[in-house]
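We emphasize that the prediction below concerns an isolated chain of 281 residues; any contacts that depend on oligomerization or on bound cofactors are therefore not represented. The input was used exactly as deposited, without trimming of termini.
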Amino acid sequence: MVENQNVEWKESWRDEYLKWICGFANAQGGHIYIGTKDDGTIIGIENSKKLLEDIPNKIQNKLGIVADVNLLETDGLEYIEIIVEPWAFPVNYNGEYHYRSGSTKQQLRGNALTNFLMKKTKMKWDAAVVPNLSTANLDQESFDIFRREALRSGRMEKQDLEISNEELLEKLDLLVEGRLKRAGALCFYRMPEKIISGCYVKIGKFEGSELLYQDEIHGSLLIMADRVIDLIYLKYLKAAVSYYKETRVETYPFARDAIREAVFNALIHCNWADHVPFRFA
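Result of the prediction step, given as a token string:
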């Protein structure tokens, strides 16, 4: 049998193979056989008794998990089977997170690590608490925009909005024991790039593949959405001009409400965890 997602063959034991056990525990689980060639041919080991004592202790001490370690024998040759179950919580080896993918072991870094930890802990990226940021640091203009849009859209009643900013955040489930969630910071903090680099908007006008001009918009998500909508109509869309009697009439190709909905949806559903600015073109 060749190595696959759930099977790894090793000729002898090395402590670095704890990384492979870590990878199996973080993925779908699997088996590691010590005393075999890469194709599964059994060659045996000589120090089986010592390994039966050392390996379980090293797994528990280094990884904080328990794995079944069994002594097997075929044609007079002893070899060891390590059975690793998939664990519900993230398992690390000296602070490193490894993952079994196909027949390879990969160390998780960057966004891959972030996504893995969120999946394992069942925590959403935008629900994480932002340290050292209080409701007093938030931007009043952003709250004003929220109240205006919530009332305009009919999603909240006027009496529901006549509360303090902190009460509004509680009502929107953006606080955890008085601490601000990341979603709340992105929506109401005027400088979200201090929290997530790349959290801003680029908007550009193209002719074919040639960029004619562009703008960058910074601020909270609510401020950026508001500024983008205004900028689209002031600079990026051309209105057809007609006259009704002596009155000049400008007709844009898209309704403002449709643009507003598209812009707000785009910014809300953008994966800001990638640290890449959102682009409108």
